[in-house]
Amino acid sequence: MGTAQPGRDDLAAWRDEMRSNFYNGSSNFRHVLERRAGRERVLALEPRLISFGSQVAGEIESAVAEVERYRDLPAIRPYDGIGQDISAIDFHPAHRRAGVAVWASGLLAVQANGEGAFEQAALFYLLSHVGEGGHACPVVCTAGLARALAHRGSQELRARYLPGLLSSDFDTALRGSQFLTEVQGGSDVGANVTQAVPVADPAGAWRLTGEKWFCSVADADLFAVTARPAGAPPGTRALGCFLVPRTIESGRVNGFRLRRLKDKLGTRALASAEIEFDQALAWPIGPVEEGFHVAVEELLNTSRWLNAVGATGIMRRAYLEAAGYARHRRAFGARLGAFPIVAEQLAVMKVEECAALASTFALTELVDRLDRGTADEIEQGAHRILVNANKFVTSITATAVVHQAIEILGGNGTIEDFSPLPRLYRDAIVFESWEGTHNVLCAQIARDASRRGILDDLFAWARRELARAGEGAGREALIVDTSLDSLATELPDALARGAEGAAAFRRHLIRLVRAVQAACLLAEATDAASLHTGAYRLGAPSDGDKRAIASIFVRRHLVTGYEPGQDQDWRALIAAALGDDLGTASP
Question: What is the C-alpha separation between 198 and 205, in angstroms, rounded?
Fold first, then answer.
């Protein structure tokens, strides 16, 4: 019927080739995970990863796409049938379908023994292939609250709430959230005015009154809320961190009201709201005077670590979509992947995802060692800097990678039901501000570096990573080493200039994270090469050559004035990094 449309056959072939499992076929992910967590731990976890990789690509992706397709986003239901205030939020039925699968994976239950960092990060990386999807943020906030209670909460709070926070049953589990931001301060939580007043009954409880401006997971069962104890001085150090149950006394709303939901650019299936508290019953998480430390070290650090994991998963999905499209789509008489300019774009996207995976799972190893109590002083200091700096750089990179994927798909890349890329792009932009804007993160890192003198720890840790690359890393290792030497002078110099040096500090910090990523990539390539003879390929031809991936990354980010057009090895490196991702890329 009508004129034949051969291009539609190519698109159908692209769709038919879509992955049915986001874990299978990514041996680079398995290699990085095994390198950091150990072979035995990965073997024990792998059946769960295989199962969840299939669920994410199938049931969860389908449910998330359905919510987006119908634009049936969360809505406030303020009252029940007889007019009682319930401050509830309604979701599309597909939201529950996705949630059941996410919670059943054990993504939260794995942290029950306090040693599930790798397991949680690996499952979350797979989940993030669908973007936020309405469940990634609730998972992260619940994980952070569970950590805060496990590490800082009273025995009574732990007994009452931890089992529900770590449950694998979506319908009965407790979901957590964290409400820190207020309208007058935004990321400046030191400007918070929500007040906390102790009460005699029940014993140990407080009452919170005030307004929170950006409250994601507004449907949560348990809120972690910062508030200023009555009579406390201004500033962040005087804040307390409190646990506020959603309901009390047979389901009665606990002294709060949802003002309105935020109409956000991305993470649209996630309920974010403005919330007013009026004498809400609350309990401190840890000593009241340590509330700011609880909020940062338990809640924010957990979110920033897992935010980077999520950004990396978004990059991987964007690359899979774009590379698959370039394999099948024809233009100007050839497959897209046959054009050198497209191949270079794809290689750069792939390199950036591999670098983000390398640094983020190196960070996960630090989290794991901290949880187990085996981290030395250098690792503790490195974590303090890297958890913030890695989030900053990976979130920026994720947005850029998805943008590149959209460009490769052209106009089709902007169509909501053609691919997940518009959804991923919106979510990636929100990820950038999730748990602190870039300038706020840089300012925190600068304060930590000035007060704690821990920049040296990160440099020492990065050199440990580089040393694991060994002599086989060659010229690239020398470039990384030289970069670390110059940054060891440039960063303190920028710090010494105070506010005048803040912009320079931010630029140098990006280069420092790039040097860390390069060291991790080179170490991964060397470890892999030691297991194989000849040119190492990551177990599956489509994963490409890790040495080439590391070389491209080092040249692009750490060689001043580098111009690919003047590098006689550039085209060969691009081809080696892509491996068989584009098939033959023939016309």
Answer: 6
